[in-house]
Each structure stands twice: as structure tokens, then as C-alpha cells.
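Worked example 4.2. Below are the chains of a multi-component assembly; read each line carefully before continuing.
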Amino acid sequence: MRPTQEDVARRAGVSRALVSLVMRGATNVSPESRRTVLAAADALGYRPNASARSLASKEVRTFGVLIHDVTNPYFGLLYSAVADAADRAGYDLLVGPGTRSGRREAALVATLLEHQIAGMVLLSPMMRPAELRRLAATVPSVVVGIGDPVTGIDAVTTDEVRASREVVDHLVGLGHRSITHVSGGRVRPARARTQGYLAAMAAHDLEPRVVAGDFTADGGREAGRAIVASGELPTAVVAANDLAAVGVMGVLEAEGVAVPGEVSVVGCDDSQIARLDLVGLTSVRQAVDELGATAVELLAARIADPGTPAVVRRLGASLEVRRTTGPARPG
Amino acid sequence: MRPTQEDVARRAGVSRALVSLVMRGATNVSPESRRTVLAAADALGYRPNASARSLASKEVRTFGVLIHDVTNPYFGLLYSAVADAADRAGYDLLVGPGTRSGRREAALVATLLEHQIAGMVLLSPMMRPAELRRLAATVPSVVVGIGDPVTGIDAVTTDEVRASREVVDHLVGLGHRSITHVSGGRVRPARARTQGYLAAMAAHDLEPRVVAGDFTADGGREAGRAIVASGELPTAVVAANDLAAVGVMGVLEAEGVAVPGEVSVVGCDDSQIARLDLVGLTSVRQAVDELGATAVELLAARIADPGTPAVVRRLGASLEVRRTTGPARPG
DNA sequence: ATGAAAGCGCTAACAT
DNA sequence: ATGTTAGCGCTTTCAT
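Applying the procedure described above to all four chains together yields the following C-alpha cells:
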């Protein structure tokens, strides 16, 4: 059985309350008592019981995190950023790993809620807006990384429209006019990127062309095949994420289409994959650390003052130009 | 304030104890009471308080997970496997994200321990054996993915020696005799892979050559540069993981060395990166799902019966041959 | 089948 | 500066 405050108190010859004070670093404790108590705790290998503590204090220092797809490296980055920020703010994280299907998201949320979390960080949740709103009504919540936020819920996201605009500007600057978009499917963040692309194309008075993808390399490969099979090879492809982009590139390479000689390719996420020398994918880099920090900040603010209207913060992204984009091939 | 069992009891016109029984699905409750209580709970939006429950029952259904590097995609896969297995076994997961430096691992463990976890899953921890043993003495623990287990601690790992043997066999079968290994540095899993390589080379009576790396693409790039600069280009490179392998490949490509024409490259982890059409890296595929399932199984067994001697399970790996390995160039 | 009562390990007034 | 006391929401004997 693990030692309790009672054991420490007995060993130190003081009351339980004093031990509690010492453990919480209260100021009005004599240095002498502090020493004795700490020594006793150490000797016993005492560790505070977080359950008992939060039960008694009604104060919780844990955030729940819902991750849409743990196997997607981008979420690793994002999670890492949230974790760092939470850590700095003195919060622990309880993680519920999502599945690609989104089927289990509800069950995960239920589990998380039973664990007395102070707030919930939702990393690109696939839940429908109604569920999202119900959740936010139950516990302070912040959505991270959806470009198309749900009304009434705190969210921090990348300004997808601006980012897409930058991508298209970059390509147009290189002489491209035939720019195809490989979408990420029906999920929310994907939609935002597609909308950004459409807006940017419209701004340049260019004809958009969208091929369906699904945020995976396989989906990108399918899209790549469709593009090649269509007979109308664009001069550039803008993919909804890096995985899709490399999927497309794999097909192009196999088909003997030079990148960026004949077709330029742009990804999104600036993942580890994009950065590999071998790949050198031009990609949109989200301000991941800032996304995480802002998420924690918004959540803390909401907990402190639940009444305020929902806040949406859009963070800028930057285009990391690498080897997969170049001048458009002569028309 | 969230509704408690007391609220439910009051609304249902029964005692708190009855509500508790219903919530835990006890059998000796009249169907009528069950209905009434469930209805009241539902109407109130009642959720059991996991802290209070574990405090009272002294039973915990949460495992702590320590992840060495969340941004490494391999850990996403591994975590996912553990999560699935834990879920099936009825456990929640509390995750402490590690940092590459390993500096914060101790702090993370402390936090996890305060949260009343039933057991700890350590994903390739960087802790020293002594710390590991101390931890295992405090809470049931299982180490996952270290090829070189620490005595006295339950572990499940890939049989690195056998895997390395397969890799070297594959290369030797293709006529390679000059096979260089890019190591993963001083961390435990890296050492196991290096030892496996050395053993396999010895078995084939081949001269080993080891270049230092560190499990990252950057480290692989450094190693690649060192190999090229040495003037003695091997016919094959066996990297400690996929990231290092692509790092090496990036350098080779930049130097105009054909892969696999002049140099074959083999990775380890069979990560998403290896599988990309664009990369097509021959890689050692670990039985990730089985690793996760076994970890949970060992942990459950240890909790049920803490006295038994430590168990080490070594799982087989398979070599996924792709495009980066081919016949050795003529000597 | 249901209720009453004690207590899990801790915090938080309130004393002193 | 330290001790006393009463809970936090729940489970768990023990009665009935």
C-alpha cells in the first residue's frame, strides 16, 4: 500500500494538515517543519494522490486531449506543442486516441469526462457541429486545427484561406496557370483548404480543378492516377496535405513525369516527410507551437471566465519553398 | 456543478448505495429500480466521477504511457497498438509525452504516478536501468520496443538479432559483402540493432563497419556524408531506423550515387515514410500490433500476480523488400 | 433487493 | 505556525 499523508505525518510527528501545507508549498510553514516533513515523505517514498486531491479541492489540473489520428505524424507535432504549453501552464494531459473512422470519438469523450478534466483540447475532431456544441456546453473545450470553426466554440486554426492564397500566388509567380487541387475529402479541415484554394484561384481569375483525395498517401496516389489518366496534365498540383502530395509525386515519378520540371507539387503541414532531403516538398508550414500555446491559452481563459463569447484565432502560415516547385513548363 | 450520485438518488427516490449498484451493473437490483435510476441519471446528465470511484474502490483502470518521442511516427503506430489493446482490456491511458532529450522523463513519471495508475507502459524509455528498476518496483511496468531488455523488468521487444540477421542475409543473397551500418547512437534500442548487425556480419564472416547516427534524418545525413567522404563506398547501408535511412539516401542522391544501383539501403520500422511510393525503402517491419497487445497482456498479468519473475517476450519481425535494395554493384 | 454508515486520501475553513 | 474538523463523490461492509 502506498504511503499517505497520514503516514508522513506520523513519521514526522506532525498533523496531516501540516503535511498538506508543505506538499502544496504553502509559505507560512516554519523551515524546520518543512525540512522534517519533506524528509519523512522522502524516506517513505510518499507521492500525493491526484484523485484524492482533486476530489477534495474540486480543482483539476488535467486537460483531456482528443486526437483524431495518432498515426498521422502531423498530430504528433501538434500534440507535442499542446503538451509543452499545457506543461508550462501546469496541466497534465489525458489523451484519448481517435481512430480514423471517428466512430469511437463519442466513447472516448465519455471516458475523458469521467476523469474530471478541467478542459478538453480537440485536435481536428470529426464530430458533427451539434455534438461539438453539446460537448463544449459540458466542459470547456477548444478546437485546434480546423480551418472552418464551428460557431460558439473556442478555436484556434491556421488561416487556410490566406495560406492557400500564398501557395497559389507562389505558383502564379512561377508562371503556372493550370493548377489542380487534390482535396482532403469531406472532413472539416479539408474543406477549409479546398475553399482557400478556390478563393485564391478566383482571385487570379484562374479555372479551378479539384480532384478528390482523403489526407492519406493512398488517396494522393489515387488522385495522382486520376490526374494522369485525365490526359490533361496540369503544370502544378496543390495537395491538401503532405501525405497526399507525396502520393501524387509517387505516381508522377512512376509515370516518368518530372517534378518540378513538368509538374510542380505543393503539400501542406510541412511534416517531417516534406523536410526530408529525399523529398524536398514545398509545403505550407503551420505555426504548430503557436497553435498549441494558443489552444491552452484559450482554454485557460474559458475556464477562468466561462461566460465570455467564443473566440476564434486564426494564425498565419508560411510557405516553405523546396525542390518540388519550379517554373511552369512552357504551355 | 456536475450532478452526483446523491442527486440521482434523490431524483429517483432511492438511496445512494442503490445508484452505485446500478451504475456498476450489479445483478441483484430489481429491473424496476434499475429503470428508475437510469432514467434519473440520464435526465440529470450524470457521469460517474472516476477520481472518487478509484479513491473509494482502490481499483484503478488507467495505465500510464511514457512516450519517448511523440514526433517520431513510429511511436504513433506503437501507441495506437497499445491503445487498442488497452481499450479492449478495459483500461484508459494517461500519456506523458517524452522529449528527445530524456531530461524530463523523470518528471513525467512522477506526474503519472500521482494519477493513481494501475501500471506503466514504457515506450522505448531512455532511462537508465537503475531508474527503470526503481520504477518497476513502485508500479507494475512493462517496457516496449527495447531490443536489449533490462533484467528484472517485463518487456516485449522485437528480436533485433534475428531481424538484423534477416537483413544481412537478404543483402548477402544479393551479393553484398561490403555492408555498412548506421547506428542509432547510445540509446538502448539502437544498441540492440547494432549488436544484431555485428552478430549477423560475424556469422557471414564479413567485416563490419559502423558509422554513428542518432535515429533522426539529420543524423542519417551526417552519417551519409561521413560514408561518402571516407572514399570507401560500401555496396549496402543498413540503417538503425527509417529516418536515418532516408537521411543517408538524401545524401547519396545529392552526390549522384544511384540507389539501389550503386548502393542498397535498408531501414528499420517500416514506417509510413518507408512505404511511400516515392521512397520505397526496404525496411524491417516490426509486429507493432502484437507488441502493443503483448505489452498490455504482460502488464495485466503482472498486476494480477506481482510476485512472478519478469517475463521477456521477443517477437519476430519481417523484412519488407522494396526498391532500395538490389544486387551488389560489381566489385 | 435496498438502505445506513464508515471511510478512501486529501483539502479547506476554522481554531488556537 | 500548526492542529481540528468536516467534507469531496464514491464504494463497501453490514443490516434489514
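Take a moment to check your reading of the output against the notes. The longest strand of chain B covers residues 62-67. Chain B touches chain A through 49 residues (CB under 8 Å).
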